[in-house]
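Why does residue order matter? Because the sequence determines the fold. Keep that principle in mind as you read this record.
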Amino acid sequence: QVQLAESGGGLVQAGGSLRLSCAASGYTFSSYGMGWFRQAPGKAREFIASIKYSGGRTYYTDYADSAKGRFTISRDNAKNMAYLQMNSLKSEDTAVYYCARARTSTTSADEGLYDYWGQGTQVTVSS
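Structure:
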């Protein structure tokens, strides 16, 4: 069965960095887009970044405005892993971060187009 497991969250000071990992299993990883979302206390879950693999060395990425220039999404199809490198973290980045599998090879900022989700990993940024 499809499983996604995030790791790498923790407590970091503002301005610091974290790298989140998402281990995928139970399906052909390279055939599906992947996304990262987050949910802060009292707020709706929001899109952060997505990555689509188009064959060879071609990847397409998309970012929320809040992530552009600070976060980088990547994937390693050989290891069935997706990553989110987060730099210049701010207190407003504090949230539970989720990785998700898109329903198809493409990606979207619409969480309704993702069918499997990990359990989430907590990121806390202290100011």
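Residues 33 and 52 are 5 Å apart (CA to CA).
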